[in-house]
């Protein structure tokens, strides 16, 4: 586990952009309170792949972005479980196809809500608010 401290939105974007290169799994669970930077981190990951239009999927639950020109991944799948209490409803929207597809990089906000249903190879990243206003602590 490595602990990172960021002091601005931009630093968290940069961290996502940097850490995506080291991911050795296609499933990333993001755990952390409101405003801790989960969506920011995913945006940073998107930047690495040249995806510029990532927005929070809170109201739509799941968004799929095409990844061009990358050997490892074809899609970036952004899921937000904030409004979910059970895994069944995610099954209904087809989450399993993506979890099982190593070419889909799946990033899940509020992953703690469905932890029991996620595969063992899921990598969890924990985020929290720091002491200062723009400080975020990110444990990977
Ligand atoms: N160091 C930082 N890293 C990330 N975001 C920061 C930082 N400092 C300030 N912020 C602000 O905190 C907010 C983080 O919002 P973000 O949507 O990424 O959080 P979230 O964890 O996805 O929240 P939610 O649970 O609502 O989905 C943004 O408004 C951003 O500008
Ligand atoms: Mg969010």
How would you portray this structure in words?
The protein is about 25% helix and about 25% strand. It is α/β, with parallel strands linked by helices and about 140 residues long. The protein has a single domain (about 5-140), classed as P-loop containing nucleotide triphosphate hydrolases (Rossmann fold). The protein has helices at about 10-20, 40-50, 90, 95-100, and strands at about 5, 25-30, 60-65, 75-80, 105-110, 125-130, 135-140. Strands 1-7-6-2-5-4-3 form a seven-stranded mixed β-sheet, covered by helices on one side. A hairpin with an 8-residue loop joins strand 3 and strand 4 (about 75-80). About 35% of the residues are buried. Helix 1 (about 10-20) crosses helix 2 (about 40-50). Bound molecules: adenosine-5'-triphosphate and magnesium ion. Adenosine-5'-triphosphate binds near residues 6, 9, 58 and 136. Adenosine-5'-triphosphate binds near residues 8, 12 and 35.
Identify low-pLDDT runs. Answer: none
Strand order of the largest sheet: 1-7-6-2-5-4-3
Large-scale geometry:
globular
Number of domains: 1
Give the proportion of residues in helices.
Answer: 10-25%
Q: What's the total count of β strands? A: 7
Question: What is the name of the CATH superfamily?
Answer: P-loop containing nucleotide triphosphate hydrolases
Helix-strand category? alpha/beta
State the CATH architecture: 3-Layer(aba) Sandwich
Oligomer: single chain
Number of helices: 4
H/E topology pattern = EHEHEEHHEEE
Layout of helices and strands, plus pairs?
Elements: E1 3-6, H1 9-19, E2 27-32, H2 38-48, E3 62-66, E4 75-80, H3 88-92, H4 95-99, E5 104-109, E6 123-129, E7 136-139
Parallel strand pairs: 2-5, 2-6, 4-5
Antiparallel strand pairs: 1-7, 3-4, 6-7
The structure holds adenosine-5'-triphosphate and magnesium ion.
């Amino acid at each position: 586990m490595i602990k990172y401290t960021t002091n601005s939105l931009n630093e968290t974007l940069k961290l996502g952009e940097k850490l995506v290169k080291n991911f050795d799994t296609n499933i990333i669970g993001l755990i952390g309170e409101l405003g801790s930077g989960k969506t920011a981190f995913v945006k940073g990951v998107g930047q690495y792949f040249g995806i510029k239009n990532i927005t929070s999927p809170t109201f739509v639950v799941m968004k799929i972005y095409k990844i061009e020109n990358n050997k490892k991944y074809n899609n970036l799948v952004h899921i937000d479980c904030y409004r979910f209490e059970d895994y069944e409803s995610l099954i209904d929207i087809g989450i399993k196809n993506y979890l099982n597809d190593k070419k889909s990089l799946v990033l899940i906000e509020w992953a703690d809500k469905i932890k029991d249903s996620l595969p063992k190879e899921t990598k969890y990243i924990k985020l929290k608010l720091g002491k200062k206003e723009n400080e975020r602590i990110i444990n990977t």
